[in-house]
């Protein structure tokens, strides 16, 4: 059996980036840029003021003090968006933050250091030449690359792209990810339960949400019974998608038909089946489509195994497909709280932990029940702690690597800032 890291390498090596499309900037949040963003002009476009006050000539305020202020004639105003006056010797202009520096002026004195009487301004302090002036091109120059392609578009990127006047932007396409739920016992939401043998699906909707969170497009293509005809028919619905995810039916049971049928019905070329990991051992992975550009993941039915396989194998692949520069999950080192013991150590185990930050270190708190079927253990978890092959025990306080799959609820209230 291959190890998790080898499996991930195979997945990544066989994942191709999709093409790009044009979207409205306001719809681009969370997408990945497929073009460099280039400055259309200098920013600021011209020298302007960083303060409300007076634009002056440095020569005129040189040596000004409380006792011996410079006294200048006010000849106009330079407001943001307005046309500034021209300043000559002995003159000053009102200026407001963002206002263009008047011709002749080279320094701005903030209002607090001045007093106005009649049409004259008294300046009580000398400031260095150029004070409070934001120079043309101080942020960036026309033609500068402001954001490189393959960056995720967040609010800051939306702001910068907007500032260079691009109402539309090229982004990589979103993968269309088909979900086929399999198993005679599985019921969709709202289907009536008539026997204890029936199980309400969790995988279908957990996967749907995980795909949405990644920024791709989930499509539920159906629920298939453990029946060859039903399975074949529903597999055919996956043809227009970029990735097919099936859940259930990939182990060694008589009714575990998925692997065989994806090969015969869709032409999937299976690249691995079974990974020395817990949860998610029987996961299968393959490529298909005309140019082997599509991916297949046969995900085990156990609900934790299903979510885990998505986070650790499917998510990096989707991120690569949708253009991400860095598609790997973040990994941190944390101190394990309470310790962890296991009898068999033949698989690399990924235990559900909640990460918190205390006394300048990350603490990983494992969830009590670690079975692949205990989905509630995922509810408070944001990381998978890695217990390596051959390791039967990690003691309280020992270090453990943790794959973070959600950074939205790191408990950081004890960090002093
Ligand atoms: N003889 C062996 N049996 C099993 C092995 C093995 O190596 N030898 N591996 C075990 C491991 S590990 C896993 S993981 C499971 C995976 O099996 P399958 O992918 O074939 O999944 P199923 O048998 O269809 O289902 C497993 C379990 O999960 C429940 N399930 C399935 N789909 C859903 C769903 N959509 N929502 C919620 N729960 C679901 C299902 O009812 C089963 O209880 O195989 C072991 N067996
Ligand atoms: O690999 Mo399975 O997920 O241990 O139950």
From TrEMBL:
<dbReference type="GO" id="GO:0005829">
    <property type="term" value="C:cytosol"/>
</dbReference>
<dbReference type="InterPro" id="IPR005110">
    <property type="entry name" value="MoeA_linker/N"/>
</dbReference>
<dbReference type="InterPro" id="IPR036688">
    <property type="entry name" value="MoeA_C_domain_IV_sf"/>
</dbReference>
<dbReference type="InterPro" id="IPR036425">
    <property type="entry name" value="MoaB/Mog-like_dom_sf"/>
</dbReference>
<keyword id="KW-0500">Molybdenum</keyword>
<dbReference type="InterPro" id="IPR008284">
    <property type="entry name" value="MoCF_biosynth_CS"/>
</dbReference>
<dbReference type="InterPro" id="IPR001453">
    <property type="entry name" value="MoaB/Mog_dom"/>
</dbReference>
<feature type="domain" description="MoaB/Mog">
    <location>
        <begin position="178"/>
        <end position="320"/>
    </location>
</feature>
<keyword id="KW-0808">Transferase</keyword>
<comment type="function">
    <text>Catalyzes the insertion of molybdate into adenylated molybdopterin with the concomitant release of AMP.</text>
</comment>
<keyword id="KW-0501">Molybdenum cofactor biosynthesis</keyword>
<dbReference type="InterPro" id="IPR036135">
    <property type="entry name" value="MoeA_linker/N_sf"/>
</dbReference>
<keyword id="KW-0479">Metal-binding</keyword>
<dbReference type="Pfam" id="PF03453">
    <property type="entry name" value="MoeA_N"/>
</dbReference>
<keyword id="KW-0460">Magnesium</keyword>
<protein>
    <recommendedName>
        <fullName>Molybdopterin molybdenumtransferase</fullName>
        <ecNumber>2.10.1.1</ecNumber>
    </recommendedName>
</protein>
<dbReference type="InterPro" id="IPR038987">
    <property type="entry name" value="MoeA-like"/>
</dbReference>
<dbReference type="GO" id="GO:0046872">
    <property type="term" value="F:metal ion binding"/>
</dbReference>
<dbReference type="InterPro" id="IPR005111">
    <property type="entry name" value="MoeA_C_domain_IV"/>
</dbReference>
<dbReference type="Pfam" id="PF00994">
    <property type="entry name" value="MoCF_biosynth"/>
</dbReference>
<dbReference type="GO" id="GO:0061599">
    <property type="term" value="F:molybdopterin molybdotransferase activity"/>
</dbReference>
<dbReference type="GO" id="GO:0006777">
    <property type="term" value="P:Mo-molybdopterin cofactor biosynthetic process"/>
</dbReference>
<dbReference type="Pfam" id="PF03454">
    <property type="entry name" value="MoeA_C"/>
</dbReference>
<comment type="pathway">
    <text>Cofactor biosynthesis; molybdopterin biosynthesis.</text>
</comment>
<comment type="similarity">
    <text>Belongs to the MoeA family.</text>
</comment>
């Amino acid at each position: 059996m291959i190890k998790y890291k080898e499996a991930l390498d195979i997945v990544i090596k066989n994942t191709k980036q999709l093409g790009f499309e044009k979207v409205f900037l306001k719809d681009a949040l969370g997408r990945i840029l497929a073009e460099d963003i280039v400055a259309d002009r200098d920013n600021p476009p011209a020298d302007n003021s960083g303060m409300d006050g007076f634009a002056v000539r440095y020569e005129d305020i040189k040596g000004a003090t409380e006792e011996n202020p410079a006294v200048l004639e006010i000849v106009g105003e330079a407001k943001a968006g307005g046309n500034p006056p021209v300043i000559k010797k002995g003159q000053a202009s009102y200026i407001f933050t963002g206002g263009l520096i008047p011709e002749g002026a080279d320094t701005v004195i903030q209002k607090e250091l001045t007093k106005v009487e009649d049409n004259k301004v008294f300046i009580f302090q000398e400031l260095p030449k150029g004070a409070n002036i934001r120079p043309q091109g101080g942020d960036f120059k026309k033609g500068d690359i402001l954001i490189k392609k393959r960056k995720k578009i967040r609010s800051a990127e939306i702001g910068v792209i907007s500032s260079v006047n691009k109402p539309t932007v090229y982004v990589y396409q979103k993968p269309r990810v088909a979900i086929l739920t399999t198993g005679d016992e599985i019921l969709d939401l709202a289907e009536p339960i008539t026997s204890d043998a029936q199980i309400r699906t969790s995988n279908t909707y957990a996967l749907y949400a995980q795909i949405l969170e990644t920024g791709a497009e989930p499509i539920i293509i159906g629920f298939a019974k453990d029946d060859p005809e039903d399975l074949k028919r529903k597999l055919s619905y996956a043809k227009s998608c970029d990735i097919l995810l099936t859940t259930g039916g990939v182990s060694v049971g008589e009714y575990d038909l998925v692997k065989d049928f994806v090969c015969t019905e869709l032409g999937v070329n299976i690249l691995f089946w079974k990974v020395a990991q817990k949860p998610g051992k029987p996961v299968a992975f393959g490529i298909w489509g005309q140019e082997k550009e599509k991916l297949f993941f046969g995900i085990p039915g156990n609900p934790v195994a299903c979510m885990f396989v998505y986070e650790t194998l499917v998510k990096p692949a989707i991120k690569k497909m949708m253009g991400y520069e860095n598609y790997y999950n973040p990994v941190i080192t944390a101190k394990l709280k309470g310790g962890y013991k296991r009898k068999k150590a033949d698989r690399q185990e990924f235990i559900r932990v909640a990460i918190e930050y205390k006394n300048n270190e990350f603490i990983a708190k494992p969830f009590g029940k670690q079975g692949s079927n205990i989905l509630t253990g995922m509810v408070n978890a944001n990381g998978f702690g890695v217990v390596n092959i051959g390791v039967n025990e990690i003691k309280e306080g020992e270090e453990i690597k943790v794959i973070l799959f959600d950074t939205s609820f790191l408990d950081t209230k004890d960090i002093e800032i």
